[in-house]
Amino acid sequence: MHSPEPPSPERAAELRRRFAEEARAERPDLSVLCLLIGAQADGTLDEAGLDAAQAELDRLAGEVPFRPGDPRSWAAALRDLLGERYGYRGSAADYQRLESSLLHSVLLRRRGLPILLSVVWLEVARRAGAPVYGVALPGHFVVGFGPREEQVLADPFDGGRVLSGADADVLVVGATGAPLEPSMLVPAAPLEVVLRVLNNIRAWASARPERSDVALWAVELALLVPSHPARLRYERGQLLVQRGAFVTGAEEMEEYAQLVEVVDEGLADRVRTEALAARALMN
């Protein structure tokens, strides 16, 4: 099974510029950001392909019944359309495919990880006027409809199955061993969703050392998101060293050490030692 190959360096640089611009917009567009991630992964996704993916989301939204009613009715309408009529859902095998984290591929295959299937639900429902948002449960992403006091959850990975409170608790307990907490049910902001998508891509690549190229661009995109975790700088440095860019990787680790030494001097010392060892590899 071959994963997608990246675009040319020139195309990749342009995609990153657009990604950074969108991530810093006043209201970042989730579908645009996810499609730019897809184009960074898949060199065959050109401008026509990006437009076609947006057009498919628009088309699906046009098939949602007009204003179906309360949050439960919205959830049922999206389940009937996307899960039942079009067969969008996931399976354990989807975790082994990079395409499962790429929005354009999910639209074509109608298969993907929970978070990417949720992006499809979110973007179709939003275009149709639904009160919809993502809910980042630990270990499993779902979609919420309606205000907190009337909240209805749906699981796109399971074809849009409408969840009871007990169902949601089972998902969280299965992922963490701890019960569902009310704080887990708050809406996820678009950039939080994007960072979680990129985390999944990095996790996929970390299990495949031969695809450190994928891990590197995923880290570099995450670094373009405002308020990203500082540790991404260290991760980028490690990846650069792994790929033979010893000096650049060491410099990145040293900059990370400078950032963290105020709060954790021991960690900073360990990172500097690692950076020194990376520099020694040049000899």
From TrEMBL:
Residues 52-199 form the Protein SirB1 N-terminal domain. It comes from the Bacteria. Belongs to the UPF0162 family. This is Tetratricopeptide repeat protein. It comes from Streptomyces galbus.
